[in-house]
Amino acid sequence: MKNYYYFLGLEPTATKEQIKAAYRKLSHKYHPDRNPDDPFFQKRFMQLREAYETLTEPAQKALYDQQLEALSYHQRSMLPPVIKSFSVSKRRVASGEKVIVTWNTLNGDVVKLLPYGLVRGYGEKTIVVDSFENGEFQLLLHVHNTLLKKTVVQSLVLQQVVENLQPNSDAEPILRGREKVPESKKPGYLLWILLAVAVVVFYYLLFG
């Protein structure tokens, strides 16, 4: 069962005004117009609408609160722990980039999102990825049922995107292929040779 209060960042005792304020804030964050063609944000916006409509309609809210209270009372389940969903807003990220992690689990009373620690059974977290190992960053979701002493684990691996800052080397062969023109081939050198030949011919005609 989805915890709409947790999704909105509220307590179950939140007032209608607080619910509306939280909805306005998050709808701005997840609105499809701000994140065009991104299925992740489209899905989150739909879930946000679902939470808002449930918690602002008195009859639906009363029924939902009843079910949520019953679920909280029977948190320890005889069923094995399950990871229903575990996802990130993007898999390829640059160092220092923000990523939104979301998860939904069942039948576990101890849930950990590593390397960040204990979390609730359902929720989301915005992280900043700045430490990669061999170009990868790993997230682990641990769900443990202490009554059954069973654990399930799922991992997600983010790939580092590195900007290519190497200079263009296409011009290098061209530069290497250029040879220095010998002094003997320069126009000034040829002019002096022709002048010397002309002087010799003139001298021969005059005195020969």
Structure commentary:
- With 208 residues, the protein is an alpha+beta fold.
- It has two domains: 4-73, Orthogonal Bundle (Helix Hairpins), CATH 1.10.287; 82-160, Immunoglobulin-like, CATH 2.60.40.
- It has helices at 4-8, 16-30, 39-56, 58-73, 171-177, 187-207; strands spanning 82-88, 92-93, 97-106, 110-114, 117-119, 122-129, 136-145, 150-160.
- A five-stranded mixed sheet has the order 2-8-7-4-5, with no helix packed on it. The protein has a three-stranded antiparallel sheet with strand order 1-3-6, with no helix packed on it.
- Helix 2 (16-30) runs antiparallel to helix 3 (39-56).
- It holds the Pfam family DnaJ.
- Residues 3-68 form the J domain.
- The chain crosses the membrane at residues 188-206.
- Please state the second-level CATH architecture of the largest domain: Sandwich
What is the alpha-carbon Rg in Å?
A: 36 Å
Strand order of the largest sheet: 2-8-7-4-5
Q: How many domain regions?
A: 2
Counting helices, strands and paired strands, the structural category is: alpha+beta
Strand residue content: 25-35%
- Poorly predicted ranges (pLDDT <50, ≥5 residues)? none
Order of helices and strands: HHHHEEEEEEEEHH
Shape: elongated
CATH topology of the largest domain: Immunoglobulin-like
User: In which range does the helix fraction lie?
Assistant: 25-40%
How many E-type strands? Answer: 8
CATH class of the largest domain: Mainly Beta
Largest sheet: 5 strands, mixed
